[in-house]
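Fold these two proteins, one after the other.
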Amino acid sequence: MTIPFKKYHGTGNDFVLIDQRAQQYLQSDDQELIQFICDRRFGIGADGLILLKNHPDFDFEMVYFNADGKTSSMCGNGGRCIVAFAKEIGIIENECSFLAIDGPHQAKIVAGQVSLKMSNVLEINKEEDHFILDTGSPHYVAFVEDVDDINVVENGQAIRYSSRFKKEGINVNFVEKRANDIIVLTYERGVEGETFSCGTGVTAAAIASRLSDDQTNQKVAIKTKGGNLQVEFRKATIGYTNIWLSGPATLVHEGDLNMKAKLFFPNLKERISQ
């Protein structure tokens, strides 16, 4: 079997995208196969895999898997990439609505930038030295003096696998506030490592960075290792609404994956761990 695919990245956060409207190449329980496709040595290599499916009430449906092969919560950069993918294959023009695991989303493409409307954030937990909030995925946000002093993998793992978060996992963001922007580094569950960018993570960081600001409409510029993003949102009576994540989504490769290749690497993850 061969699977046609396209690979996109959103500020270094990369994804394999597969059009499943006419043929069902992958199922939700194909965890080992999805792991193989996302593996950076034996497969295509990606932070996640996204299926585009038909939906009667929307332009399409997005089904997202982390690199560990498991279905996951919302991915902001993945959402922006599937919008660019949908335009590339002729499903949409420059605006659309689609369904993801956390509900409906609107999106638009303007001057090469893909903007995605995120879920409302109605609850933010401020704890001793960090914030916990859900922007479609759960995030831990910690502000630091200098992100260059942070070992993202070591410190991120310590939080993600702590007794409080070990079972469900959490994404961990280290944020440096500057005069005109913020810098965000993210450890992602499911990838179990640092990613160059995380859409739901920078959204969480942007909101947390403006909690003490009384302005109703906010716009935050964000720098990640993979590039620049922008988050706009509105402070409501309860929480934050009209949240838009914007940035580039770039096609980097396309081809046909020959699944016979996997026959040479049975039990791939077990072999790597030995």
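Now the second one:
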Amino acid sequence: MATIASPQAETAHDTFPINGTDYIEFWVANAKQSQLYYRHVMGFELLAYRGPETGVRDRASYLLQQDKLRFVLTTPMGPEGEIAAHIALHGDGVRDLAFWVDDCRDAYAKAIERGARSIHPPRVDRDENGEVVIAAIATYGDTIHSIVERKNYTGTFLPGFVKSSPSFVAKSAGLKYVDHCVGNVELGKMNHWVEFYSRVLGFYNLLSFDDKQISTEYSALMSKVMSNGNGRIKFPINEPAAGKKKSQIEEYLDFYRGPGVQHIAIATDDIVKTVRDLKSRGMEFLSIPGTYYETVLARVGTIDEDLAPLAELGILIDSDDEGYLLQIFSKPAQDRPTLFYEIIQRKGAKSFGAGNFKALFESLEREQAIRGNL
């Protein structure tokens, strides 16, 4: 395995406890249409809505849920304001990776004290179901982290959202929770944001990969994985490295017009079933050469699954000292080659598929070449 475990893990201390990912909010050009994709194709359920019909004049938001995953799709009601400007610059993308905490005020104060830039201080939103306290801090690019305290709230999601009862309810695709979220940053900025997560949030550098480990004939990148103490939040951070041609990170930065969330990895308990389901509904995945499967078991050892369906679907396999994992990557979820999804099933492994990097990046390069961006 081409990975380096960080010695910082034993001495890291969270600045404040994080219970997990509260939600991920996307700012998109047409949330009404986008939410249909996430429901029909990915199996999310529409739980709640906030918009002009509920008294919010400048935006419309749809809350989607599947098991422990909560996605919020938000669109502006006109060309003015920060949402419209964000979409004009970046296209559809992730705005907010929100943390679920027990004490928002304490968490925000500690983050600011350690050097975080404030997006907004703690505010209290109330309705008949109680109150939610929310603050927000900035991270790379235009991405933010909301800090959400909901211990005194019994409603569906947040005050202002009205529960939805749609006639169409999608069948779950078996997606469970956020495994990790990957950020792409500019050349020379990876260590800056590693230091930010360490200093401000008390995260530690779980794993590191350099350009010798993550490279193909044409391109390379470097990556460091930051994790909070309980391991519920994991943020790999990528930056491009010198290569013969444009790397996937450079392509992302060009089309997103800056740093942002590259992909969201979602856990499943049965990747074969989940991927078959997603493909049948229209989700597109990267293709892997059949030769990959001729030698993969010699590299990773014995696995519980039959190899044939994994090869049929293009599911990758990797292992570490604690077990193995199965993973597959989607094509971009929008026309700009920016955000995409990873589906992952862990069978003990705590790593991120370093043994698959070469096969994955060659597949990504084939897609870049088709787009004329390699």
